[in-house]
Task: inverse folding
């Protein structure tokens, strides 16, 4: 945590982390509102795993010196938990057997994570689990693009780009999650907006 105290409020990395944290709020608040109002249908399996993985990534980033760059991850985790809770009642209901397979596979990935004490290995495993957990949501969104809105995923792309800039240390543990999230969120935005061109 000592890395955070070395930055001033005018430091570009601090500003980038602050903006990224605001984007986590800007993207997630409307999405959470839409979940509550049944305007979007998040896949509970994905959000359940994400709530676990985001927590793992946050502590892994702190352990490997991310400093203030980990703050947006912490903000995102709060909303991830809330969205998961509401998705249990308001989320996507047409769960397929393949979705259950990916849920079990993702949760099984927590076993090697639990037995390792290396933050870098933990983050690598966590990101792999994150990707597996993303598959049910990607499948659902491809089949039913109207079940999602692009704002959250678009702000996620910008947020993770800012997070990469705001990191106080660059290594696999601090960088990998954001790189993967930028890629997968771009795919989500494409899947969602396809409805406007078909």
Result:
């Amino acid at each position: 945590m000592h890395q955070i105290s070395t930055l001033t409020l005018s430091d570009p990395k601090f500003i980038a982390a602050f903006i990224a944290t605001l984007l986590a709020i800007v993207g997630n608040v409307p999405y959470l509102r839409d979940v509550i109002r049944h305007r979007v249908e998040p896949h509970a399996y994905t959000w359940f795993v994400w709530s676990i993985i985001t927590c793992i990534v946050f502590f892994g980033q702190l352990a490997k010196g991310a400093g203030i760059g980990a703050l947006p991850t912490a903000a995102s985790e709060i909303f991830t938990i809330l969205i998961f809770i509401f998705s249990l009642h308001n989320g996507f209901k047409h769960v397929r057997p393949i979705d259950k397979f990916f849920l079990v596979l993702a949760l099984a990935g927590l076993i090697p994570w639990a037995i390792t004490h290396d933050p870098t290995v933990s983050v690598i495993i966590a990101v792999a689990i994150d990707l597996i957990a993303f598959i049910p949501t990607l499948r659902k969104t491809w089949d039913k693009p109207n079940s999602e809105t692009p704002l959250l995923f678009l702000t996620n792309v910008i947020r993770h780009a800012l997070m990469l800039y705001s990191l106080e240390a660059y290594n696999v543990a601090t960088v990998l999650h954001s790189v993967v999230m930028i890629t997968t969120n771009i795919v989500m935005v494409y899947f969602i907006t396809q409805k406007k061109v078909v």
Remarks:
- Residues 9-196 form one domain.
